[in-house]
Amino acid sequence: MDWILPLLLSLSCAAGVPLSRAASGQRNRLLLISFDGFRWDYDRDVETPHLDQLGREGVRAKYISPPMLTMTSPSHFTTISGRWVEDHEVVHNMMYNAKTNLKLPHQKTLTRSEWWDNGVLPLWITAQNQGLKTGSFYFPGGAVNYGGQAVNRVVVEDPRPANETEWKQNIDTVLSWFSEEDFHLVTLYFGEPDRVGHQKGPDHPDRKTMIRLIDRTIGYLRESIARLHLSDSLNVILTSDHGMTTVKKRPEVEELVLNKYLNLVKLNSFEILDYGGFGILTPRPGKEQDVFDALSKAPNLTVYKKNEFPESFHLAKSKRLPPIVVVADLGFNLNSRFIVYVNKGDHGFHNSEMDMKTIFWAVGPDFKKNFLSEPFDSIHIYPLMCKVLQIDPAPHNGSLSVTEKLLLLHGGCQRYRVSVALLLTLLCSLALI
Ligand SMILES: [Zn+2]
């Protein structure tokens, strides 16, 4: 039986990773971080030693694709729920009601459950229902109730521009929830580099300065994780909601003014325009075809009837979206009547545009080292997070098979492990015979 030991050793080595903490009764924790509007290539023209190190010590995706719509609230809620926008119905950063003409800005929506809670459970609640402790620091959708349930610990986003000292304090707070209070999942959100991307444009030197600040913040996060002895138990996913593109202005282009093509007041009862490249309109009764035909004549945009969306948009089932949706060509703003729009950068454009693609890094005990992943859709982050937290996912549209290859111990390995264990038992019985 001299052959048994080498065989067993080679089988164990083939499995390649230490036994899961699940087997020893311990559960690794997860910190999900989002830096809003971090385009996939923002670290290519700036020195980012800490992000580079993150890639060497963990996993990086070449880029990831946000869902349609490439906006903060819709995209974040897809990440945290694993559902397409047509299912979770957070269809805009603004809360609106086309019947009453109510329009609330993004900041005001953050504590309004009726905008977020449409029957889809985000990860915080699903995790809590399985006995885990969760927290949300500034994260969109974290500060409301779902079916009457709140996230265990919530800090609502402070809309003031943040600075480096505050960012460090926020990291200290979140890490103390793990080190002192045994939280399992915390989501942490930063409003940059979205803000600078809008104000100055993605090519402005201030955007590069912001990426350097973010890089230092990641350095501080990783130092703090090590100092608090969390490196062996805390996984970190670093991602974002969408990219950013330069807004095209006169005289380079003819800017779009939609009222030139249709009489907005006469034909529409509700609209959200002047909000970058994505616009929604509710035609007056019987005017839907007129609005569609008029907008179809406008250049540099695509107009859709809601029920004729391409399937890849995953928007057609939405009850909240009005009958007409307009997506401008990359960089064009949908001005309604006048050009009052001041942003130099924006998003909300088609998610197939490279400028709308965003980032994904992950590091920690459950992730591979120095692994560069092919691009994937952000919707597949949800099942990955459930796997890392060892919880049963709620119904979702993601696929673990897309993202589990980022893990050291993925499904295939676990199944293999079972067969190794069976083989071991068999061989041991043989040895005894
Ligand atoms: Zn933005």
From TrEMBL:
Which CDD domains does the annotation name?
Enpp
In the record, which residues are listed under signal peptide? 1-22
* Keyword field contains Cell inner membrane: no
The record's InterPro entries line, in alphabetical order, gives:
Alkaline_phosphatase_core_sf (IPR017850), Phosphodiest/P_Trfase (IPR002591)
Recite the UniProt keywords alphabetically. Answer: Signal
Quote the Pfam families the UniProt record gives. Phosphodiest
Q: Provide the protein name.
A: Ectonucleotide pyrophosphatase/phosphodiesterase family member 7
